[in-house]
Amino acid sequence: MTKSTTHTDGPESLDSAEEREPTIAEQIDALTDPSFMTSLARGLAVVQAFSDSRKPQTIAQISQKTGIPRAAVRRCLYTLQQLGYVDAELNNFSLRPKVLTLGYSYLSSTPLTVSSQPYLNGISRELGESCSLAVLDDGEVLYVARSAASRVMSVALNTGSRLPAYCTSLGRVMLAHLAPHELDAYFEKARLKAMTDKTVTSQKRLREILAQVRQDGYAINDEELELGLRSIAVPVRGASGQVLAALNVGAQAGRVSAERMRQEFLPVLQRGAQELAVLLP
Questions:
Q1: CATH number for the domain whose boundaries are 12-100
Q2: pLDDT tens-digit profile of 225-281?
Q3: Beta-carbon-side half-sphere exposure of residue 17 (alpha carbons within 13 Å)
Q4: Does domain 110-277 have CATH number 3.90.226.10?
């Protein structure tokens, strides 16, 4: 894992810059609950080590990414290979299609993801832009459904893609509705780095933005995640009123202004969020 720096206000920013982010292996080893299965956690970490690379991985590369000893990585890969989740050619390992069944179990058992696609397709057709549905998972935005009208980002976004929460419209909508102690916990762990020269990395300023998002009921991201990308998001609430997901539309900044998003896109998204709410418990 690479070392990253948290940008905050005040003296603590210096301390954060000096702290090394713990490796995945160190995070696993820090969990001392006797019921916790370290071997299972390591196996899942090995699977996740493939997520940021389109090329086959070696034992050494996975060990370096995760901090898990090579011998343990080798045993994990051998087990995954025997179960049909991993393929191997010499010392190069790659995931097999069977690994998709792990994610599909979630997608096929969650009413929101099963039934939301027609709604996203309708929004995308009406606005002529890509529409996405996401949940907040471990401090990141996890895409659970998407209708792509065009590619507006340099990287392809699909179901299962993950992005930072602090610099995305989807993430800010969901962060804005966290309980105070949950938001504090998020900022304690978050690594706030600049994705573009417009990215807000000040914790104080982000808290102010989130308070405004909570008041307004929507969030607009203006080229903070990627230059040339502008997006708007609204919360999706369950029957209890709790925010369980977020819905957004992204577009090229040079083609769609922030004001047009407020005037034209926001009402369509709000209507879509109300329709999706009936799918949630």
A1: 1.10.10.10
A2: 999 999 999 999 988 889 999 999 999 999 999 999 999 999 999 999 999 988 777
A3: 8
A4: no
